[in-house]
Design goal:
4-stranded mixed beta sheet; 5% strand; disordered N terminus
């Protein structure tokens, strides 16, 4: 009876979720001395070449020269054959509205100086922790809101038209309002670092472990990694929460944790159950109407933070630790009411 009552109280408490004071300005983590690390940032701007294409022959050559953009950003596999794709794209890029998109990109991004500064800082920090890191080729593109970002060890492609922000005349289609919040210029490099942090290139995981805990720690490591590449980026930007959501999660961390324990979720492997706590959703309604979505990934981040406070390990050693249970057990994670 006591257990049932506690379970009923958890969502009720979340209805009373109150945001605490915003302390994003005080969220910096350790910033290493990167003054002697030189990063040469060169960005190949391809958006004008594609949006201003003059002939079918020019378009054909562009697609041939840029296979990642062709396959990923322009979604080649959605067309029955290349000739149909060619005609559809040529018609798109002859549309007069394309000029508006080009103007918007110029207004928001200008000469890309702010983006270059973010890239330089993130890559300098990355090279500090990983001296063998090689700066990848970086390209920007605009395709008419087809795709946002591609990241590999050798190439980064940024869809600038996706990141124009609230004032843009055209926004990505098919996304909920809360998802559009993350498509602003300041989210580009945090997103790149998160993709680096979750990739096998940096993050060693046990792929045979299908538990929620394994996903939690895997994502938690990626957030911890990204935060140290961009040390003063607000946590809310890294995890794509609003300031109110992340303040509420911090204040109610004990309630969130109680839900996971009471429902024995840590070692759950059922895919449908995992989706409720890991995948994209506006809220985690199982906990409460104001609990943000993907809440298990945020909890995983808190566990990893606690682990790094408890253990004398480096960032590199953390990222090479494949055992989520070791990280969890050694973290002594037991959040208390704030």
């Amino acid at each position: 009876m006591e257990k049932s009552l506690r379970l009923l109280l958890i969502p009720a408490l979340f209805i009373l979720w109150l945001s605490s004071c915003n302390n994003e300005s005080n969220e910096c983590v350790y910033q290493p001395d990167i003054s002697n690390i030189e990063i040469n940032v060169e960005i190949e701007r391809l958006e004008d070449d594609l949006l201003g294409v003059k002939s079918r022959a020019d378009l054909r050559q562009f697609l041939k020269d840029n296979p990642v953009i062709t396959e990923i950003f322009l979604k080649r596999n959605q067309y029955p054959d290349d000739s149909i794709m060619m005609e559809a794209l040529y018609k798109r890029f002859q549309n007069p509205h394309i000029d508006t998109l080009k103007s918007e990109i110029g207004r928001v991004f200008g000469d890309l100086s702010e983006l270059k500064a973010d890239i330089s800082t993130a890559f300098a920090n990355l090279k500090y922790y990983y001296p063998d890191f090689k700066t990848p080729k970086i390209q920007t593109i605009a395709t008419g809101l087809d795709h946002d970002l591609f990241v590999s060890d050798s190439l980064i492609v940024i869809g600038l038209d996706y990141y124009l922000g609230d004032s843009a005349k055209y926004r990505p289609l098919g996304l909920y309002g809360y998802m559009l919040e993350r498509y602003r210029p300041q989210y580009i490099m945090p997103s790149v670092m998160l993709l680096y942090g979750i990739s096998p290139m940096f993050n060693k995981t046990d792929v045979s472990d299908k538990t929620i805990l394994a996903d939690m720690i895997g994502y938690g490591k990626s957030f911890y990694f990204a935060k140290h590449m961009m040390p003063c980026t607000p946590d809310s930007v890294l995890i794509w929460y609003s300031s109110d959501e992340i303040d509420g999660a911090r204040k109610n961390q004990d309630i969130i944790w109680a839900h996971f324990l009471e429902n024995q979720l840590l070692y759950e492997t059922n895919h449908m159950v995992k989706k409720k706590y890991i995948d994209e959703r506006p809220k985690t309604f199982e906990i409460g109407e104001k609990a943000p979505g993907r809440i298990a990934t945020w909890v995983g981040w808190q566990i990893v933070k606690q682990y790094m406070e408890e253990e004398e390990v480096t960032l590199q050693e953390l990222m090479q630790e494949p055992d989520p249970r070791k990280v969890f057990n050694n973290s002594n994670y037991r959040p208390e009411r704030k």
